[in-house]
Every structure is written in C-alpha cells, then in structure tokens.
Amino acid sequence: MVGVVDVASHEVEQPADVATIIRQAMRHADAERTIPCTNCGMAPLPRQIALKKLDALAAGTAMVRKDIATF
C-alpha cells in the first residue's frame, strides 16, 4: 500500500501529484502489488475535503492505469 493522500492536511492533492507518487512507488514494486490509498484514516477531515481527496486519489490512479494499459 502506498499512502498518496495526506489526511493530516486539508489541502486537496492534485491528481497529477497522486499519479507521480504512484509511479515513484512502482519503481520499487510491481504494478500488481502497488495499492494507492490514504496515509491513514480520514475521520479527522471534514466530509467535503475527504471526498475531494478521494476524488483526487481515484483520478490519479486512473491516470497511471491508462499509462500502464498503453505499454
């Protein structure tokens, strides 16, 4: 698992930044073994911020999956 979303911050990550972290992790583990996630639980975050962070997580992951599919 790779924590690509920081739950200690209210700043919402950009999907491209999430994708960059995932790609960096995949230098050390195969794509099949890389699981993008938050770096901890999201309970301390306001609901709207948590939802936006999850959207960024999904979008960044989709970007990487698209890249992998073209290989």
Structure overview:
This protein has 71 residues and is mostly helical. The protein has one domain. 48% of the residues lie in helices and 10% in strands. The protein has two helices and two strands, in the order βαβα. It has helices at residues 15-25, 47-69; strands at 2-5, 36-38. Strands 1-2 form a two-stranded parallel ribbon. β1, α1 and β2 form a beta-alpha-beta unit. The two termini are 23 Å apart. The mean pLDDT is 95.
Present the secondary structure layout.
Blueprint: E1 2-5, H1 15-25, E2 36-38, H2 47-69
Parallel strand pairs: 1-2
Helix pairs in contact: 1-2
Notable features of this structure?
2 helices; 71 residues; mainly alpha; 48% helix
Number of strands: 2
Shape: elongated
Biggest sheet character: 2 strands, parallel
Q: What does the radius of gyration come to?
A: 12 Å
Strand neighbour order, sheet with most strands: 1-2
Low-confidence spans: none
Distance between the termini: 23 Å
Portion in helices:
40-55%
Task: Name the beta content range.
Answer: 5-15%
Number of helices: 2
What would you say about this model in short?
This protein is mainly alpha-helical and 71 residues long. The protein is 48% helix and 10% strand.
